[in-house]
């Protein structure tokens, strides 16, 4: 790493070469096992006054030696600790704060621009001896049953690590406490802190996967139960899985590139093993997410088929009901026509006129009755032949 222009800052041995530095642990041997990761829980919310600098500390041999109150104090104290390391945690910092960090640690303008704008895809880029890492963290919200994503930008140099967080996840305070509880691991340098952050982000995917699995089980039950809102839920969960894929899939390649860089620059071998373990977890999570998305596609197809069958059954029932109704209408119409004929004859003969024909005919009454019977029988035969009766 090129020495920054500061008269009272002496370059550390690791700063004389590009890439990762590997300070010796206090015992001279790497730790046998990483400290246990904290159990996933709700992330620590940002302070009420929205301070950008969440935590800033200077470490020597893996132990905190200073907690400066401002970025300027952090820069000054890091210059005094010739073999120290600064770990600065920011939450949605201002442009002036990031530019002051860029001037102090010689950060690339493109990386600073990405950290300011956010909404970046997960990626790993090297600018000289500084790594720029973008991660997408996730957490599962039980109440609305949805996945919330956060964005984390990390600058890693030989003697500094800067985190820029956009969103509630991940909870980096737990990561810092974990590493401060294992000074022999933190003494391995900024790459050890980077490993811990990667491990926390990947571990944060586990409850998300479990929550999504529960949602999948509920959706399958709702699909076969015919719940009306299940299509909307499938679509929303599919969109979340697309975002989850974008967060996890690039991590596989990123971690392999990072492991190659660890090997190239001679990073502690035990730390490389830890990183391989994180890579295995990422691969497993990515495969689960791919499986979720494929299963959701199949569930959506099944749901569409069941809806089509349900609609066909409803149309068939409506058609049958319409046919039955039509048959009833035909019967009513037939009987109405049959009864209309004698009513018409009786109505005519019921008129009180003296000059009406056949009033004085002796066979008039039998003739009228016979006429009505003939008309009714004729209409009945006609309607019967047409299956109206």
Structure, explained:
With 389 residues, the protein is of the alpha+beta class. Helix content is 56%, strand content 14%. The chain has a 7-stranded mixed beta sheet with strand order 2-1-3-7-6-5-4, sandwiched between helices. A hairpin with a 2-residue loop joins strand 4 (123-127) and strand 5 (130-141). Mean pLDDT is 80; it is low at 1-32 and 38-50.
Report the structural category: alpha+beta
What fraction strand?
5-15%
Total helices: the number is 9
Report the end-to-end length measured between terminal Cα atoms.
101 Å
Number of strands: 7
Overall geometric form? rod-shaped
Order of helices and strands: EEHEHHEEEEHHHHHH
Main sheet makeup: 7 strands, mixed
> Which stretches are poorly predicted, pLDDT < 50 over at least 5 residues?
1-32, 38-50
Strand order of the largest sheet: 2-1-3-7-6-5-4
Q: Mean pLDDT, nearest integer?
A: 80
Query: What is the helix fraction of residues, given as a range?
Result: 55-70%
| CA-based gyration radius | 41 Å
Summarize the structure.
With 389 residues, this protein is of the alpha+beta class. It contains 9 helices and 7 strands; from the N terminus they run ββαβααββββαααααα.
């Amino acid at each position: 790493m090129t020495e920054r222009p500061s008269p009272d800052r002496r370059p550390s041995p690791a700063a004389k070469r590009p890439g990762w530095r590997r300070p010796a642990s206090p015992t001279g041997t790497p730790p046998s096992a990483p400290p246990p990761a904290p159990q996933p829980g709700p992330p620590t919310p940002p302070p009420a006054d929205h301070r950008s600098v969440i935590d800033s500390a200077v470490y020597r041999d893996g132990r905190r030696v200073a907690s400066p109150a401002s970025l300027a104090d952090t820069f000054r104290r890091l210059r005094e600790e010739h073999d120290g390391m600064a770990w600065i945690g920011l939450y949605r910092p201002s442009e002036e704060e990031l530019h002051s960090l860029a001037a102090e640690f010689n950060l690339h303008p493109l990386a600073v621009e990405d950290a300011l704008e956010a909404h970046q895809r997960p990626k790993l880029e090297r600018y000289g001896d500084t790594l720029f890492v973008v991660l997408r963290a996730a957490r599962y919200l039980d109440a609305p049953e949805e996945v919330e994503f956060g964005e984390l930008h990390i600058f890693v140099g030989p003697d500094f690590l800067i985190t820029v967080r956009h969103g509630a996840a991940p909870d980096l305070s737990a990561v810092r406490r974990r590493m401060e509880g294992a000074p022999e691991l933190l003494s391995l340098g900024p790459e050890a802190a980077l490993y811990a952050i990667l491990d926390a982000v990947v571990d944060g995917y586990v409850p998300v996967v479990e929550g999504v699995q529960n949602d999948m089980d509920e959706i399958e039950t709702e699909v076969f139960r015919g719940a009306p809102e299940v299509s909307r839920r499938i679509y929303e969960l599919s969109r979340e899985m697309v975002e989850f894929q974008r967060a996890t899939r690039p991590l596989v390649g990123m971690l392999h590139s990072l492991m190659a860089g660890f090997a190239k620059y001679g990073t502690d071998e035990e730390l490389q093993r830890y990183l391989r373990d994180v890579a295995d977890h990422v691969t497993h999570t990515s495969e689960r997410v791919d499986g979720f998305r494929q299963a959701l596609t199949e569930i959506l197809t099944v749901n569409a088929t069941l809806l089509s069958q349900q609609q066909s059954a409803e149309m068939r029932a409506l058609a049958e009901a319409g046919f039955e109704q039509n048959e009833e209408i035909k019967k009513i119409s037939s009987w109405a026509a049959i009864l209309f004929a004698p009513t018409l004859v009786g109505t005519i003969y019921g008129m009180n006129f003296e000059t009406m024909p056949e009033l004085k005919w002796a066979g008039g009454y039998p003739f009228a009755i016979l006429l009505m019977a003939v008309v009714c029988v004729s209409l009945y035969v006609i309607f019967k032949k047409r299956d109206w009766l």
